[in-house]
Amino acid sequence: MIKLKADYVLTLNEKYEIIKDGEIIFDDKIIEVGKDLDNSLTEIYLGKNSVIMPALINTHTHLEFSSNYTHLEYGDFMNWLNSVLEHREDLFHGCKSECYKSAIKEMKKSGICAFGQISSTGNDLKYLKHSPLKIVYFNEIIGSNPAAVDMIYQDFLARIRESEEVQNEKFKIGLSIHSPYSVHPILMKKVIEIAKNKNLPIQTHFMESKAERKWLENGEGEFKIFFEKHFKNAKPLINPIEFIEQFKDTNTTFIHCVHANENELKRISEIGGYITHCPISNRLLNVGLLNLESVKNFSIPYNVATDGKSSNYSLNLFKEIRAALLMHTDLHPKYLAKDLIKSVTINAAKSLGLNNGSLEKGKDADIITFKLPNKVKNLELLPLQIILHTNKVDNLYINGKEVK
User: Fold this and answer.
1) 358 confidence band (pLDDT: 50, 70, 90)
2) Mean pLDDT of the region 177-191
3) String of DSSP letters for 17-28
4) Exposed, middle or buried: residue 42 (CB in 10 Å: 0-12, 13-18, 19+)?
5) Interval 15-46: pLDDT, tens
6) C-alpha 12 chain-centroid distance
7) pLDDT class of 142 with cuts at 50, 70, 90
């Protein structure tokens, strides 16, 4: 067992309890959190202005694109999408073992204990199956051509089987339906049925751009031009509300939702869905900003993630939530900061179906420690000061073991 003491222990329990001069005892699970705990254990004091809190969780990444730096075109969603299609194979081939190790190292240094990985090909599995970080590996399905449905589905099943073979305490699987505009409804239903039968989390991109809405509602706009390059008489196969309805009775996280309207947010809330907010990605693609006030009004738990390096310069979650703090100028920084810390800990854990994200008895001992530059007199401002002044951590524990 290990006993740590810090000037500030941020528990992320239901009361959002912050313990001054607090302690935590853990082995692979958290045993106790509080003050003046078991004196028979040797205490490790972490030093002046030290913080203990749950390790961070990056719910949505595309590590297959981690070799991207300047290949892709930012500033417009459709231009970016076309550049992704143009450079996709080169970027995938450019990310081998060292590329994945570098991406994981970047996340590890910034206190991330777990991440959700969208895998579109399965070629990343050999690089990620022995990751020191926890992974929820989302096999993604994409394809709207009716003639190819059977072939796409058989390939998808093969990828699921392959990833199931490497499952362990750190490697879990999930399923991803790329988006309402890119997956045939027949495939959607098949994938959702698998998720229900196997109790797997789902992720799906939803309402990332104005172009998506124009296409799904009217069959018009930039997506019409895009699809007609490949298919004659292309038309949308599902509308937004019908799409959301597919995910009833599942653990589904809707990615982006920048252009989701109130009816769609209401339905996401009613089916118990989650939302992932990727503020830097949304800014670089110039699609707008998620309305967090509406998301909160509908009591939808949201998490913040980096997305992939296809639309970000970093996989550091502290940088991501700092960007969110500065972008959402309509929200009070003190209260937004509290929500943002929740978004990368307990909310993220629930989205991925993990037993971590808070410092509570029985939770996995996934913990980070670091130091702030000065004392924080007003504990209500601790989340804000953490976001402003933290980029990397001193220690990362996963299942109670320190990960170097």
Assistant:
1) very high
2) 98
3) -EEEEEEEEESS
4) exposed
5) 999 999 999 999 999 999 999 999 999 999 99
6) 18
7) very high
Q: With beta carbons less than 8 A apart as the criterion, state whether 208 and 77 touch.
A: yes
In degrees and rounded to multiples of 5, residue 229 shows phi and psi of -70, -25
Number of residues assigned to the chain: 404
Instruction: List pLDDT tens digits, range 204-224.
Output: 999 999 999 999 999 999 999
Strands 2-10 and 56-61: unpaired
Q: Which tokens hold the place of 327?
A: 């972008």
Q: Assign 64 to helix, strand or coil.
A: helix
CA distance 341 to 385: 11
Q: Angle at the Cα of 128 (from 112 to 174), degrees rounded to 5?
A: 80
Contact 103, 315 (CB under 8 A): yes
Of 208, 212, 320, 360, catalytic: 208
Contact criterion met (CB below 8 Å) for 290 and 282: yes
364 Cβ partners below 8 Å, 6+ apart?
A: 28, 29, 30, 354, 355, 356, 398, 399
Distances in Å between the alpha carbon of 276 and those of 29, 92, 137, 296, 356? 27, 24, 16, 13, 18
The set of residues, in sequence order, having a beta carbon less than 8 Å from that of 109 and lying 6+ positions away, is 316, 392, 393
Q: Which domains does the chain have, with CATH numbers?
A: 2-55+357-402 (2.30.40.10), 56-352 (3.20.20.140)
* Strand 367-371 with 395-398, pairing: antiparallel
Tokens of 168: 């362990």
Q: Is residue 108 over pLDDT 80?
A: yes
User: Residue 262 above 90 pLDDT?
Assistant: yes
- Other Cβ atoms closer than 10 A to 16: 15
Residue that the structure tokens 């990310």 belong to: 95
17 counts as catalytic: no
The pLDDT of residue 231 is above 80: no
How would residue 234 be classed by pLDDT, with cut points 50, 70 and 90?
confident
